[in-house]
Amino acid sequence: xxxxxxxxxxxxxxxxxxxxxxxxxxxxxxxxxxxxxxxxxxxxxxxxxxxxxxxxxxxxxxxxxxxxxxxxxxxxxxxxxxxxxxxxxxxxxxxxxxxxxxxxxxxxxxxxxxxxxxxxxxx
Length: 123
Fold this sequence. Notes:
This protein is mainly beta. The chain is built from 2 helices and 11 strands, in the order ββββββββαββαβ. The chain starts with a strand and ends with a strand.
């Protein structure tokens, strides 16, 4: 199962390239929703790009701020134009913002993370 790791307060899009048996899932005309029960994200609408066969969620800082979690279940639910529904599970970890400082106490340089760069994850 795929694990996605983000940091507290990050607001970069979570973009998913959905595949079935190694082949891209045709998302033309489909709708998508994200559910991460631990973070109280329940069937939140996602942006679907049918030409790229991707679905994206734009988190707010509040979605992850103060919500450290490790290996919690999460789901992208696709409703196709045919009204068929398919669920793509994944695992989400939200690291504390100062994670690298905490695991490497001898490091004297500060670490910054980008909260505006989107990455694409294949499910």
